[in-house]
Specification:
- The protein is an alpha+beta fold.
- The chain has one domain (about 5-175): Lipocalin, CATH 2.40.128.
- About 15% of the residues lie in helices and about 40% in strands.
- The protein is built from three helices and nine strands.
- The chain has an eight-stranded antiparallel beta barrel.
- A hairpin with a 7-residue loop joins strand 7 and strand 8.
- The protein is globular, with a radius of gyration of 15 Å.
């Protein structure tokens, strides 16, 4: 039996070195693995804890027009051994940092091929919200576990893209958002 929680914590404990290896060796994440689902997430860089973004949640849905989209939910930073608790609360999670989800169309245009692209530049985020510069790439690091994904976050400024950090995702259930943004 697959132990997704163990794989998730293995990514967290392994940090950037393990994430880099598994990201390079992993397989392409598929739209079907994420659409209509939510994932607990963990940023794999040391400063994330200090600035309050170590833990987070990502969700994915399809618009009535059939466009795959996603969002982030802030969660309490109560330690990795504690439950991921949405802010402000589980009944009213705050959705922000929207992105369009699509397979990488052209490896010439992206630093990562064979991945799902989470394009915050197409998420209709307000100009003052920094998330519009983010581009995340998702891959499946463990061949036997489609419920754990590994992301590589990049910052896009004009034609330039800079690597930011890796993050781990673990499937937790159905999306909490439906329809249009």
């Amino acid at each position: 039996m697959i132990d997704s929680t163990s794989h998730f914590h293995q990514l967290i404990a392994g940090g950037r070195t393990l994430a880099s290896t598994l990201f390079a060796e992993g397989s392409t994440a598929r739209l079907g693995q994420v659409i209509e689902r939510e994932f607990d997430g963990c940023n794999l860089f040391a400063a994330a804890r200090l600035i309050g973004i170590r833990k987070f949640r990502k969700g994915f849905w399809t618009t009535p027009e059939g466009i795959a989209m996603g969002y982030n939910i802030p969660v309490r930073q109560n330690g990795l051994d504690q439950e991921w608790l949405p802010k402000p609360d589980a009944q009213h999670p705050r959705h922000f940092g929207y992105y369009r989800v699509q397979p990488v169309a052209s490896e010439a245009e992206h630093p990562v091929g064979n991945a799902l692209l989470l394009d915050y530049g197409q998420g209709q985020n307000p100009w003052w919200n920094f998330t519009w510069v983010l581009r995340d790439y998702l891959r499946q690091p463990f061949a036997d576990d489609p419920d754990v994904l590994l992301g590589a976050a990049y910052v896009k400024i004009g034609a330039l893209r800079f690597f930011s950090n890796f993050f781990a995702l673990r499937w937790i259930g159905a999306t909490t958002r439906k329809g249009s943004r």
